[in-house]
Amino acid sequence: MKSKFSLLLTFLLVLTSCNFTENIEVHPDGTGTFALEMDGAGLMAMAGDKIGNELATKKDTKVVDSTFSFKQIFETKKDSIAKLSVEQQAALKKLENFVMNIKMNPEAKQLLFSMNTPFKSVNELDGVMESMGALKDLKGKSDKNSNPAAMMSGMGDNNSKLSFSYNGKKFTRKAVVLKDQIKKIATDSLGMAKMIFASSKYTLKYHFPKAVKSVSNPDAMFSADRKTITVEYPFSDYSENPEKLNLDVSFE
Fold this sequence. Notes:
31% strand, 252 residues, eight-stranded mixed sheet
């Protein structure tokens, strides 16, 4: 019981102390890369040794720098995946080109998770965040070590459907809350959930091949060449009010 409580506490600390960044880079031909990054430096400052013991790949070291593909994980779990529903298998299929990197150094107070994938068109990113919820279907007794990708499964659990579009003149990020989940979001936003995410941030950072003319969010920050925009939100907006992160970008 004590160990279970410790793991739960650690999990809550991770959520409380981490900041997330959604990165998209669009190339001139419309291809590009998508990345989701989690910075847990705050967590390492509070509980570095404990987390180091949990995530270290070797007993004699707490420094971790590991890169692996989701395709590799799915291959080792192909028997389990075969037992999932067609819908669950399709969701995992959408994630197989992701590559995950974990960097951890307790002494440097560093804890970074990043997931990235290339795309031929931003439209390929439609439904990607929701698909991450399917990672929890791969969990097992030793999941923390055998399925580290499952640590990010909660990112797809904000009860909305996310889509992207880009035609060279306009870029759109649009989250639509599922009508049958509106009441659930209202319930989940109360009590502990709100405290857990109180100090976390969710940042959109998008880089385009041409200068940005205007952004629907007046708080967006521009790079010197106006090709990169950054918009920061409280994580509670991402989890409770995903439509607040909707964005329209037009170009010069």
